[in-house]
C-alpha cells in the first residue's frame, strides 16, 4: 500500500477508575487504562509500536512506556495543555498513514485532586513566572482570571449574558445525570450557577470544571488490523492543530480561539461540514470555553454562541449533543482532559454509552459523525479530530 493512503481507525478506548482516588498512583491509572483499552480492542499488546504520553515523569513517554512494559519505536510527548491529546492523535494518525507506526497507544492518568488533598501539590493558580509570563505575572493574573477576562470581553462585544453561560453548566449537568461515573449528577438550575461563590468575575464555582482523579487511553491502528479487532472501527476522518499565543498581550482577539483554525482544517480534511456533525465533545474547563468553541468550530456565527446553546440544544436529546458524559464541568477533570473527549466520542459513535445518555438519531441509530476538540493553556492551543463510523 502506498505510504500516506492507509486509513486509520480508533480500535480501543477505555477509562481507568475516575473520581476520588486517594490510594492510587498516576502510573497505576495509566496501566489500568491501557489494559482496559487493549481488552476493548481485542488486539495483542505486542502489536503496539507507537506510544504517546505527557504530563508524568521527566521523560514522559519513556518512563511511562517502561512502566507499561512497552518498547515503542515511535513516540510523542507533545505537551500543549488540554489540547495535547487531539494534537497527539493527529500526529499518530499521520504516522500510521505514512507507515512510520502500525498501532499507537495514547494514555493519560492523573491524581490531581488527591495530590492537592494530601498536600503533595498546590492548586494551579499560575503556570509560573519564567519566560514571557514574567511580563504579566506582576499584574496578578491567575489561570482562571485569563479565561474570565476573555468571557467578559465576549459579553462586552456581543451581549452574551451570564444566564446564557450558566445554562451551559445546567445542560452539561443534565448530560451527567445518566453517567454513573460522573463526579456530580444532581440537577442544576441557572439560579444555582449564578448564586454560587464567585471565583473570578464572571465565573462562580459552577462555571468551572470539577477537580478529579482519573485516566483513560485510546488505541489507534492501521486499517489492516481492523478485521482482528473486537469492536467496530471508528475512523479518523480529519484532524487539525493550531496555536495562538502564550501571553494575553499577544492575543489579538479574546473572542477568537485557535479552534477557528484547527476546526476548519479538520472539517476540510474530513470532507464534512460542522452542520453534519451529530455529537460534539468540547473541552470545557469553563462554561465560556464551550460557548466560544461552538462558534469557532462553525456551529454558529461569532457572537451567537449564547443563543445557539440555549433551549436544551446541547443535551442528549438536543439538536447538537455536547459533552455527553457530563464534561469537565460535571463528570471528571483530572488535568489535561482532552483524551476523555476522544473516548466519549468513540463510545457515542459505537452506540455503547449507557441508557439515557446514548445519542440516538433517525430510526434510533447512533450518530455517524462526531468531533472532539481540545483546548490548551488559556486558549493558547487547539486540536480538533473528526471521527466517523461506517
TrEMBL record:
Gene3D superfamilies: 3.40.47.10. Residues 240-389 form the Thiolase C-terminal domain. It comes from Streptomyces ehimensis. InterPro entries: Thiolase (IPR002155), Thiolase-like (IPR016039), Thiolase_C_2 (IPR055140). It holds the Pfam family Thiolase_C_1. This is Acetyl-CoA acetyltransferase.
Amino acid at each position: 500500500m502506498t505510504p500516506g493512503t492507509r486509513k486509520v481507525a480508533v480500535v480501543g478506548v477505555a477509562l481507568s477508575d475516575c473520581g476520588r482516588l486517594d490510594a492510587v498512583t498516576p502510573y497505576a491509572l495509566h496501566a489500568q487504562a491501557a489494559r482496559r483499552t487493549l481488552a476493548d480492542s481485542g488486539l495483542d499488546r505486542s502489536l503496539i509500536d507507537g506510544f504517546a504520553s505527557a504530563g508524568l515523569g521527566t521523560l514522559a513517554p519513556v518512563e511511562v512506556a517502561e512502566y507499561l512494559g512497552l518498547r515503542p519505536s515511535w513516540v510523542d510527548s507533545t505537551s500543549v495543555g488540554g489540547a495535547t491529546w487531539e494534537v497527539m492523535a493527529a500526529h499518530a494518525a499521520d504516522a500510521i498513514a505514512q507507515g512510520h507506526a502500525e498501532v499507537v497507544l495514547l494514555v493519560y492518568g492523573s491524581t490531581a485532586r488527591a495530590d492537592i488533598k494530601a498536600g503533595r501539590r498546590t492548586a494551579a493558580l499560575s503556570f509560573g513566572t519564567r519566560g514571557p509570563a514574567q511580563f504579566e505575572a506582576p499584574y496578578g493574573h491567575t489561570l482562571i482570571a485569563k479565561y474570565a477576562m476573555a468571557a467578559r470581553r465576549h459579553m462586552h462585544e456581543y451581549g452574551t449574558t451570564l444566564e446564557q453561560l450558566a445554562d451551559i453548566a445546567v445542560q452539561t449537568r443534565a448530560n451527567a445525570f445518566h453517567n454513573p461515573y460522573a463526579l456530580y449528577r444532581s440537577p442544576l438550575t441557572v439560579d444555582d450557577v449564578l448564586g454560587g461563590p464567585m471565583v473570578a468575575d464572571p465565573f462562580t464555582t459552577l462555571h468551572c470544571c470539577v477537580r478529579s482523579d482519573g485516566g483513560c487511553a485510546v488505541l489507534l491502528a492501521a486499517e489492516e488490523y481492523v478485521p482482528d479487532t473486537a469492536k467496530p472501527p471508528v475512523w479518523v476522518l480529519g484532524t487539525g492543530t493550531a496555536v495562538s499565543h502564550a501571553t494575553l498581550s499577544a492575543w489579538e482577539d479574546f473572542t477568537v480561539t485557535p479552534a477557528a483554525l484547527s476546526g476548519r482544517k479538520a472539517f476540510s480534511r474530513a470532507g464534512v461540514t460542522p452542520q453534519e456533525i451529530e455529537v460534539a465533545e468540547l473541552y470545557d474547563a469553563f462554561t465560556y470555553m464551550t460557548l466560544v468553541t461552538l462558534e469557532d468550530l462553525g456551529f454558529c456565527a461569532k457572537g451567537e454562541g449564547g443563543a445557539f446553546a440555549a433551549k436544551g440544544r446541547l443535551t442528549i436529546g438536543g439538536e447538537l449533543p455536547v459533552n455527553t458524559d457530563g464534561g469537565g464541568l460535571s463528570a471528571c477533570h483530572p488535568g489535561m482532559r482532552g483524551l476523555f473527549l476522544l473516548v466519549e466520542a468513540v463510545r457515542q459513535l459505537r452506540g455503547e454509552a449507557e441508557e439515557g445518555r446514548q445519542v440516538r438519531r433517525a430510526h434510533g441509530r447512533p450518530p455517524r459523525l462526531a468531533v472532539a476538540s481540545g483546548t490548551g493553556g488559556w486558549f493558547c492551543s487547539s486540536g480538533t479530530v473528526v471521527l466517523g463510523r461506517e
